[in-house]
């Protein structure tokens, strides 16, 4: 079952975490990673009245992904939108190479 959030719902979430739409916009521009920027962008668009489906289409994501981000923000506030690397290649080794 899809959750439909209106502007009022988003406004209440922002108020709960002591943010306004200007704060969201500022965090969107200052986010340290593209992924975090994308999450703040989604929240900003929702606060501007976009539907989750429209946001998902604009950001080339699935609507459930947008809903997951909003739910995390609802439960944990701004820290929930931070991006933490998981998986992928390990960082390059800083050790010395062995001779052949």
> N-to-C terminal Cα separation, in Å?
60 Å
Strand element count: 0
For the biggest sheet, the summary is:
none
Rounded Rg? 17 Å
Poorly predicted regions are: none
Oligomeric description of these chains: single chain
Helicity level: 55-70%
Strand content: under 5%
General description of the model:
The protein has 100 residues and is an all-alpha fold. Helices cover 56% and strands 0% of the residues. The protein has five helices and no strands. The longest helix has 14 residues. The radius of gyration is 17 Å and the shape is globular. It starts with 6 loop residues before the first helix and ends in a 24-residue tail after the last helix. The model has no long low-confidence stretch (mean pLDDT 86).
How would you describe this structure in keywords?
56% helix, 100 residues, mainly alpha
What is the strand and helix layout of this fold?
Layout: H1 7-16, H2 21-30, H3 34-47, H4 52-59, H5 63-76
Characterize this entry briefly.
The protein is mostly helical and about 100 residues long. It has helices at about 5-15, 20-30, 35-45, 50-60, 65-75.
